[in-house]
Design goal:
extended, mainly alpha, single chain
Length: 131
């Protein structure tokens, strides 16, 4: 339905500070995750070598959880929700079927603009070399 009704979850912000405050509030009050990618053309998908089987993924996950028993878990880990464990595990290089996400909107922003920053640094270096 395309009437002019506003999405009840839609929020408008006027400044970067307001946007950051909103994102941090979402993160602090609920389990939110963010993804930063620098091209809207990227296809979302998981790329494992063909030799990785479902059994390999499950075995790796089971071993990871056993090894984590001796360390404090992050606040967002819930024993009954494997996907939150997978979210946590992939940051320790465990292969999962999840895309790379973060609970920190600033980390997502970094990955969204990383190439822009790198390209700008290269241009600045070239300009300095020409002087």
């Amino acid at each position: 339905m395309h009437d002019n009704a506003t999405d009840p979850d839609e929020r408008h912000v006027a400044t970067w500070d307001d946007a950051l405050r909103l994102l941090m509030d979402l993160r602090d009050n609920e389990f939110f995750s963010f993804r930063g990618q620098n091209s809207h053309n990227w296809k979302l998908g998981i790329h494992h070598p063909p030799a990785v089987t479902e059994s390999d993924l499950q075995d790796g996950f089971t071993q990871f959880r056993k090894r984590c028993m001796e360390f404090p878990k992050p606040d967002y880990i819930d024993e009954g929700q494997d996907w939150r464990w997978l979210f946590f595990a992939q940051h320790y290089r465990l292969r999962t079927r999840l895309l790379d996400w973060t609970t920190n909107p600033l980390v997502a922003l970094y990955f969204a603009v990383e190439n822009i920053l790198t390209d700008r640094t290269k241009l600045d270096k070239e300009d300095n070399n020409d002087s």
